[in-house]
Amino acid sequence: MSFSIRKSLHPGLNLGEDHGDDRLEAETSVFGFWVFMMSDLVTFGMFFAVFATTMPLACCPGPKELFDLGSVAWQTAFLLASSLTSGMAILTLKQEHASRSASTKKLVFWLLVTVLLGCGFLYREISDFIAMAAAGGPPTRSGYLSALWSLVGLHGLHVTGGLIWCLVIVAGIVVRGVDHRWKLTLLRWAVFWHFLDVVWIAIFSFVFLGGLL
Amino acid sequence: MLDAIFGRLTWDSIILVQAVEQPNINTFITAGAAAMMPVGGVMIVALLTWMKWWKPLFEWLTSVDHKKIGTMYIIFAVIMLFRGVVEGMLMRANQAVGLNGGFLSSDHFNQLFTTHGTNMIFFVAMPFLFGLINIIVPLQIGARDVAFPRLNQISLGLTAAGGFLFMISLMVGEFSTGGWTGYPSFTGRLVNPGVGPDYYILAIAISGIGSTLTGVNFSVTIYKLRTAGMSFMRMPLFTWTALCTSILLIFAMPPLTACCAMLGLDRFLGFHFFTNDMGGNLMNFINLFWMFGHPEVYILILPAFGVMSEISSTFSGKRLYGYTSIVAATMCIAVLSFTVWLHHFFTMGQSATVNAAFGVATMLIAIPTGVKIYDWLATLWGGRIRFTAPMIYLCGFFVLFTIGGLSGVVLASPTLDYQLHNSQFLVAHFHNVIIPGVLFGILAGIHIWFPKIYGFRLMEGLSRITAFLWAIGFILAFMPLYQTGLMGMTRRTVAYEDPALVPWMIVSGIGALILGCAFLSILLTIFVSVLNRKKLMVPIGDPWDGRSLEWATPAPTPEWNFAVLPKVDCRDAFTDAKAKGTAYQPIEKYEDIEMPANTYYGFIIMIMASGLGFGLVWHMWWLAIASLLGAIATAITYAFLPQKQYIIPAAEVREIDEAWRRSAREGRGITRDDEGNEANQGLARPDNITNP
Fold first, then answer.
1. Which residues of chain B have pLDDT under 70?
2. What is the CA radius of gyration of chain A?
3. CATH class held by domain A20-53+66-212
4. Beta-bridge partners for B456
5. How far is A73 from chain B (nearest CA, A)?
6. CB–CB contacts below 8 A, A to B
7. Which of these, A52, B118, B200, B634, could form a disulfide with B180 (CB 3.0-4.6 Å)?
8. Closest residue of A to B262, CA-based?
9. Tens digits of per-residue pLDDT, B478-513?
10. Lowest mean pLDDT among A73-87, A175-189, B107-121
11. Which of B250, B254, B262 sits opposite A50 (nearest CB)?
12. Which residues of B touch A31 (CB under 8 A)?
């Protein structure tokens, strides 16, 4: 097949020439996932828009009583750090896995660190949800709380999905090695994971900081 | 214990039981419809067993071939169209005798207009168009399949799961009574705690996710899989409109998913998104729904415009007039479609300035649409026009769709809309754009592309009768509603008290009867054509002197579409090749072709999605959870299973392809005079007229 190198480039981190045929299919596969992410971004946009139209009611606790900015800062730190380590995983993939026989240890290490950080994020987020419910702010109290819980919860659900996906990939490369398909899956997962970071930054600034300022 | 297993499903939920316990005309009608499903099911099972068709059936259900998936979409849509037409006829019959109350109860009537709308939009129009897009787009861009064949199968599975939930509501429980738009708080838990709105939410959300994935799949297919030389400005118009529709799907389906999810959270978990109290705001639902709902209108109409473009150039034997302007107009419509959603609720209390802005944006859409109509008319000018079924649809479209578009401009004026909104005038307007626009496009598209996939043409005479029946039925059924709307009759009315409306309603009822005949006429056309298929064969594959790549293949098209991927260096590539005499030249070198193997992925996802939906509707939590976990486990399992391919050896491809090319070179072909005759073997000979 005579693909020029330029033609096989796609949005996101490219594997490079050394990977031979592996990178050719990536153009379609990763591009398709970017398109899907755009669609998902619109879904988040809708939840943001609905959140923006609601206001805390006098009956129930508002941002000042419910938000623990320290905990949210920890969540941010966990998620941003996990994005960095997921980037390290993809760099490892690009630099060390052009040949199929390369050791998977380093790659698996970075992926597991990412999972660990992701779990840290989820732990703190769930603790915050429990604390909010205990402080009289469950989602059934008001429209504002419904919008808040579902926006943040939708992101949390995405993170959970991303973690399960990452573990499946780890299992896959341990069982089958870093073959063509797992490479593509990793590239798509990386897009997903960075996307969740971007959404979280919006949630952090718009929901938490915006609510307290 | 039983509650844990069956949730809120009880013996009385089953419609047939209701008919026995409370016998009246309403329960009899629903029970009759409900009985059709088990009876039909038993008949289908018997037929499959009798004809030994089980194995072929599963070969179809597990296929990832875009042509087979497209066909399944269309079969699904035809079945649903049957239900939709019957519901429409029932409503028109009820209104024809509806002075001081018809024969239907108001609750039954409410369910009818809800199911009719939901069905026609989500389970008829969209699957029809997805079917056409699936079948034709890869052929038109010179590809062997779509970008993600297995995802394509999953999209079909999700659409079918939505359809399953929709159909099962006919047998067990009830459907929503809130209209196809399902506004809360009427569909909220407080007002409507039953299963109806749950069926509605889950059916459209599940099929909506399938539609999103279809949009992703086809945008990537068109961006990435075009054959060598097929630049954007060389793509056939149908592919262009499919691209615009895919982009609209990507951006317009998420608002629907979001508003369904929020309404679901309100109903299932007691959230306050759209409730009347505790800071809920139902306007959020209405805004989200129409942010989806308005682009949806263009998701439906754009591919129909694409078909009309193909008809106007192919059936007048001319290059499309103003190609660039039609492409620009299509893109304009796609962009503008996101800026007009508020015109669906001018009367809900925004300021006059906001209404004016959206009114002007709405009227703007008439401009690119008008550009297209003039381009198609100009294409016909001086061409070698054949007044066959597709041309009848096109002419019907010119006249009737333009009227519908103009009534849309009337509705776009907020001042007039205050008078007309929620009246029969609106019902007349949207049927006037959807039937002569979308449906005519679909039926014409099926007529012209049918021989491509199945190898034989549809009977020309019967197709013409069908086309006229649709046009006349439409005019009689819906033109009177403009008048009754202006007389003040509201939409969704089960009974009325003004005797002056009666004649109009009777005319409209007669029109509905003719539309029913038009539907039967479609089935009859297909049935008779299948019986006469020997006489209608077009093995060379080019029965209409086509212009784009899909006609450069045999009919029926082999599973690999193109033995060797074609190269393109101009618009209307196939017409160009025929003019140069290179269309059927022998090919030197054939290569092995790798095709994706059949898989059960989509089929399993369909079952899981149906189980999830049904479990949630009836609060059978074990079923919902098991289905959800099952779907996740399926996805993980398939990530580990090898993606099977199968190889078609070059020798086999060579044998079939060379035989086809040889018979095309040796054949004499027919001029357009013989297009409808038995002489038409799918090989075109130039007419003795000069193209202007």
1. 688-692
2. 20
3. mainly alpha
4. B537
5. 27
6. 103
7. B118
8. A150
9. 999 999 999 999 999 999 999 999 999 999 999 999
10. A175-189
11. B262
12. 220, 223-224
